[in-house]
Each structure stands twice: as C-alpha cells, then as structure tokens.
Design brief:
The complex is a heterodimer of chains A (about 300) and B (about 230).
Chain A: H1 15-18, E1 47-58, E2 61-72, E3 76-80, H2 87-93, E4 104-112, E5 115-116, H3 124-130, E6 131-134, H4 145-155, H5 162-175, H6 179-182, H7 195-207, E7 213-217, H8 225-238, E8 243-247, H9 251-257, E9 260-265, E10 268-274, H10 275-280, H11 285-291
Parallel strand pairs in A: 3-8, 3-9, 6-7, 7-8
Antiparallel strand pairs in A: 1-2, 1-4, 4-5, 9-10
Helix pairs in contact in A: 4-5, 4-7, 5-7, 7-8
Chain B: H1 11-43, H2 47-78, H3 82-117, H4 122-151, H5 154-162, H6 167-183, H7 188-220, H8 227-231
Helix pairs in contact in B: 1-2, 1-3, 1-4, 2-3, 3-7, 4-5, 4-6, 4-7, 5-7, 6-7
Classes of the chains: A alpha/beta (about 300), B mainly alpha (about 230).
Chain lengths: ~300, ~230
C-alpha cells in the first residue's frame, strides 16, 4: 500500500520526498566509508518537531551526533538501528526525558511548533504532556483503570468537573481501542489487564492529556503478535490526530506502520526516506546491510 | 557491479538464496539446451532429438514449480527486504520468462516436424538457412543473458540491453522468404512454417532482454522495463 493511499494519511508533508530525484538512486551504492552526512531528505513542510544538529553526550561519550530530522504532522516516523546506535537517546530528547540523567547533556536545537523545547523558560511538565511517551514495558499506575486515565487530566487541569473528566476518560479509552473491553470494570486495577491491554491503557493515558506527539520506545516488544497487531492498527488510527515517533527493533513493524523510516548507526542518522524506499531499495550500504541482516 | 546474495548473519538464509539461484540457473541451462536442440533438429531429420525435447518439456515445468515453491518458503521464513526481496522477486520473474522460453523450444520443435514432412529440396535448404542465421543470433543473446544471470552483473546486463533486438534480421529474412514465395507459390506452406519459427526466435531474444532487465532491477533497484514507452 502506498503512503498516499494509507488510511488517514494526508501525504502533504512528504510531497517533497516523492519528487523524482535528479539522478536515479542506485540501491546500496553509498558505502560505509562514505561521509556520515544523512542520506535522504530530513525536512518536511510545516513540521511538528524540527531537530537541527542535535548532539547528546553521556559524560565523555558522544551518543548522538549532529542529527537533524523533522517530524511531520500526522506522520509516523520509525527509528531503527542496532542496539546502542542512539535511537532511543534521540527519542528521549524530544520530550527532554534525558534531563533526568545526571551526566547527560544535549546540544543543538529542537523545536516543537517553532518553540525551542530546551529553552530555559520551558517547563518540562507541560512539555511532556504535549509530547507523551509510551515505554517498552507497560507501566500502569497501581490504581484503577479509571484513575490511570483521569490522573493526567486532573493534575493538568483539563477538566472543569467530574462529568468532563469522565468524558475525557471515556474518549481516551475509545481512541485507544480499549473502551469496549473494559467499560464494565473501570474500577479494577490497571495492573489486572493483559499485557496488550496495559499497553493500550498507557497509550490512553498519554492521549488523555491532549498531546501533539506520542513517542513510543519499542511499545510492542513485550507483546504477543495479536496484541502487537492491535497496537499497530491503533497507531494508524491515532496518526489522524497526533504525530508518532516509534523506536522499534522489528523491521517488519517499521515497514508496516510508518510513513518514513530513519536508520541510525553509531550515533549517526545514516538514512531517512519513505518507508517503502528504505525497505525496497535503500541508498546507503549500511542501511541495506542492517535491514537485510548482514550486520555482525 | 556484481550482485551479492551472501553475507547474512543467518547463514542458512545465504544457503537458501544460493539454492534458489542455482535452481534458476539449472532451469535456464535446461531451457537453453532445449532451444539449441530444437534448432539443431531442422538440420537433420532426427526424430530422436525431437522426441527428447518434447519429453524434457515436463522437466522445465517441474523445475518451475519447484522454484516457485522455494520462493514461497523463503518469503514465508525470512521476510526478505531490500536487495534480498528484489533478488527473490527478480528470480520469480525470471522463472516465468524461462518457462515461456521452454514453450518456444517446444513450438519450434513442432514446426521442425512439419518442415521435415515437406521433404528435402534446394529451395527448402535455402530457406532453412534463415533459421540457422537468426537462431545463432538468438542463442548468442540468450547465452549472454544466462551468464549475466549467473554472475548478476549489472554492467554486462546493461551492455546486452543496449544492443538492438532481432527486428532487423527478422525483417531481412522475411524479405528473402517473400521472394521465395513469389518465385513459386508452392513454397508458401514451407515458408510460413519458417516465418513462424523466426517469430519464435524473435520472442526468445525479447525474453533474453527481459532476463537482463530483471538482473538490473535485482542488483540496483532500478526498474528499467518499458523505459522506451516511458520516454514517449
């Protein structure tokens, strides 16, 4: 299925990527010895997030190197690469989760709707409401299903009264595709749900506070194929309202859910392109070697 | 730039792709041999050759099924992407063309039987020379296409594709055969069979070009099929 025909995908942001290149790219022609400039178009028109020359250091370790990448509105971007390549570190920059790590420093510019998220005037709490996150392992609060969802809107003051809060809870659970399954047991503990349901509960919790972007760090790695399929289908639905950035080790998942795919290697962004292109004829040899399983 | 099918961390995948490549080459060699023998059968009335070709047709068909099965298994087990996916898709297309090449060999054999039924004669032998001439050219092109497929060499594939097809030779032969018919209308039936064989040889040349196009796609990802039509 082409990107243009994908349900809910406007295609607007990647039009520039669909223009025919001046010269036909030949798959796997850029070798590992080529310079480390990113292959492909990193920018989109009217981005939700614009990252420019982002570097991350853990003490003296240079974990993310000069990465520039836009995240479009209503776009799903998958980040793939071997362990330790910097994809999760880069993801965590997008809502300043790296602030919680003592020896971590971030340089470069990251703008959310044109606003620098690392500016001193930015409060990280509302930032993390705007840029929500779903982790590898479902982490529901040790509270009821209802309270798991209601907690965020309540502390962010998104509901004026109980009825409005209830409306948010119901809408969030519906958007996360969980409502029908748990509508009769909202007072049960969130931890009593299955793994897949818990992960969807976490997604519902993230969307309850009206985010613009949802970051997902290997959200399906602890789930069975059925629960994974449900989450992937949900992502397709959610991208009508949100931008989604997903880190995944499953190449097939990246191919199935994302509009664009970014390949990371040793802290560098090697290649970014339409997902169809990455998985049929990637330009960089490193990308080709990784996705075809030729990396040691 | 020769294509590379090996180098996977999962070595069994290397083996599976190599097996697939070998099976495709085995089918290609069998089909080439069928075509060569079919053309040889015009030079001598050898019923044994014709019979052998018709019997080996089933071998081509069963190879096609075996390769399709291998492709299905590799797709199901490995979920190939990028150059591996292109290679497998390419082999799948190659097999279809090889099967059609096998059909052309059988078709030529049937014409050979009809031509021999017409009996010997000077005119007939002159007309048969047309088959020899165009047949040699078609076999040379097909031999090169199979070699390109063996080593997955994009440079040689592009070189083969840059060469003109057999249109010119076909048209020249057609003119000569027309003059035989004009000389004596009794040559008509014989000449028509020869023309149909030449048409088969023209198709063999086209299939050989297809094989080279698939190799370009497998190695580089560039789909150059119908590029003449694209430019118009």
């Amino acid at each position: 299925m082409s990107i243009a025909s994908r349900k809910h995908w406007s295609g607007q942001n990647i039009l520039q990527l669909q223009k025919a290149p001046a010269t036909e790219p030949v798959s796997g022609t850029l070798s590992a010895q080529s310079d480390q400039r990113t292959v492909g178009t990193v920018t989109v028109d009217d981005p939700r997030i614009r990252c420019t020359d982002v570097n991350v250091y853990y003490g003296s370790t240079h974990a993310v190197k000069n990465i520039s990448l836009d995240i479009g509105r209503n776009e799903i971007v998958a980040m793939i690469g071997p362990s330790g390549c910097g994809k999760s570190t880069f993801l965590r920059c997008l809502n300043r989760m790296n602030d919680t790590i003592d020896n971590c420093s971030v340089t470069g510019n990251i703008e959310l709707d044109g606003q620098d998220i690392n500016d001193n005037s930015i409060d990280v709490v509302p930032l993390r409401a705007r840029v929500g996150m779903v982790f590898q392992k479902p982490n529901p609060f040790p509270k009821s299903i209802y309270e798991n969802i209601a907690f965020g809107p309540r502390i962010h003051g998104l509901a004026r009264d109980k009825a409005e809060l209830e409306e948010i809870v119901i809408t969030s659970l519906q958007k996360a595709g969980l409502w029908k399954e748990i509508k009769d047991c909202l007072d049960q503990p969130g931890t009593s749900l299955s793994g897949g349901q818990q992960q969807r509960l976490c997604i519902a919790r993230a969307i309850a506070i009206n985010p613009e972007v949802i970051l997902m760090d290997e959200p399906c790695s602890a789930l069975d194929p059925i629960a994974t399929a449900v989450i992937e289908d949900l992502m397709n639905e959610l991208c009508t309202d949100y931008s989604i950035v997903i880190v995944t080790h499953s190449m097939q998942q990246a191919a199935r859910v994302s509009h664009r795919t970014a390949y990371f290697h040793l802290g560098n962004l090697i290649e970014v392109a339409k997902t169809e292109q990455i998985f049929t004829h990637p330009i960089h040899q490193l990308t080709s070697d990784y996705i075809t399983g030729r990396i040691g | 730039m020769p294509g590379r099918l090996e180098g996977h961390t999962i070595r069994r995948f290397d083996g599976e792709l190599e097996q697939l490549h070998n099976e495709v080459l085995e089918m290609a060699e069998l089909v080439f041999e069928q075509i060569r023998k079919a053309l040889e059968s015009f030079q001598q009335d050898n019923q044994q050759i014709i019979q052998a070709i018709l019997e080996r047709e089933s071998q081509v068909d069963s190879l096609e099924k075996r390769i399709d099965n291998t492709i299905t298994e590799v797709l199901a087990k490995r979920g190939p992407v990028a150059r591996d996916l292109r290679a497998i898709m390419g082999f799948s297309k190659v097999v279809t063309d090889l099967e059609r090449l096998g059909d052309e060999a059988t078709r030529i054999t049937h014409f050979s039987t009809r031509v021999h039924d017409n009996g010997p004669g000077r005119k007939n032998s002159d007309m048969l020379r047309e088959i020899e001439l165009v047949g040699d050219l078609a076999c040379t092109v097909l031999r090169e296409a199979i070699e390109v497929l063996r080593i997955l060499d994009i440079t040689r594939a592009r070189k083969l594709l840059s060469q003109a097809g057999l249109d010119e030779e076909f048209n020249a032969s057609l003119r000569r055969l027309t003059s035989f018919i004009l000389e004596d209308a009794l040559n008509m039936k014989y000449a028509i069979n020869i023309i149909l064989v030449l048409k088969s040889l023209e198709r063999i040349d086209a299939h050989a070009h297809n094989l080279a196009e698939y190799v370009v796609y497998m190695v580089s990802g560039s789909d150059i099929r119908h590029s003449d039509n694209d430019q118009t």
